[in-house]
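To whoever picks this up:

The nightly regression suite flagged Glycerol-3-phosphate dehydrogenase [NAD(+)] as changed. Nothing in the input moved, so I suspect the structure step. Input below, exactly as stored in the fixture:
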Amino acid sequence: MLMFVCKQGQPIRLKGFDMNHPATHAQGKPQAIARIRRQYPYNNVVMIGDGITDQEAVEATGGADIFICYGGVVERQNVASRSDWFVRSYDDLMRCLKRYKVAMVGSGAWACAAVRMVAQSTAEAAQSPASCFEPEVTMWVHEEKHSGRNLTEYINEHHENPVYLPGASLGENLIANNDLIETVRGADLIIFCAPHQFMHGICKQLAAAKVVNRGAKAISLTKGMRVRAEGPQLISQMVSRILGIDCSVLMGANIAGDIAREELSEAVIAYTSRDAGVLWQQLFQRPYFAINLLADVPGAEMCGTLKNIVAVGAGMGDGLGIGPNSKASILRQGLSEMRQFCKYISPSVRDDTFFESCGVADVIASCYGGRNRRVAEAWCQRRMAGDQLVSFDDLEKEMLNGQKLQGVLTSDEVQEILEARGWELNFPLFTTINRIIHGEVPPDMILRC
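Regenerated output under the current build:
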């Protein structure tokens, strides 16, 4: 007895054999199937056998979904003719199982920490003949030079990104490619982890090249949104609309360096299709990286976006030298405005989402350890010391080694929405942070908003 997730009758993923349900007599088979259904409600059940009672276990009410007739020992024509699939060997069965090809779009610190986990999972899965993943993972790298060499060449030789995640082995099964189209070509599972301001162009380029498989699935690790005249568009919505594929999101308290050191971390995968969520969970979950599944894509994604604004505010507070009580007030007000903004934009957002890793946990991690906090602290200190010309752009180049600062851009995008809809007074912290960024009010206004 084994279980697959199936699509249009074709077995695409072996879930596993279950040896805990005896089926040594005819009535044992329907009972075993019923127990398996209760234990795995989202999987289809496949019966493999060569006898009439095996066939009857499929045809009975509540029976298995697919019957594979095995003719490797005894071939019974009357049973084979009624089967969904006929095989003569176990190897035939394994060869027909689809394996997913995985591609990563992005090569910054978080992208490398994430693809490192993915490469570990696919390498381990390759040891099983029933693996559902191709062992090789491709990663698109925006080409640049490192020590006189192309960064892609260095990564492929040393299995490390020395620019954005130095010292972390990405795995020998990770292949870097500077060609976006070739990286994604033929991929079944596409992970997006590029700065959000570049995502629209990336999706348009992929759509024009027509390289995305029709049945492919995507997941976004990108934190941000696109502002349009008709309203904000989340990155997952952009991917789905432009590429025509399902897009889940992975969000949480995920500082890249901590995860690369395999420190205990967690995240949520929010999905529209639970089957897709379970598949992504298989790919990302590691002994040091726990995944919870959540049926709230807009809530999880907006939390991951808005927390960057709160982190900028927390960094400003740190630059002023405030104590823990004052900083806690900024975090509390920030989380409250995050929830309110999410509800205004998408009333279906669930309250319990804010208690997941993508909510309060991500706010805490970002406001104490993220790059938005760190740059905002330095900016505020320089301003308070009299340097009125220092800009966030300057500090991004000086401090982030080529990485992008998301909080300032996100603040501008959210402020555009607040002003367009007349919501500024309802979001005093978000509005004050944006005005401080643009020099309209002094930094200490963060304590009086």
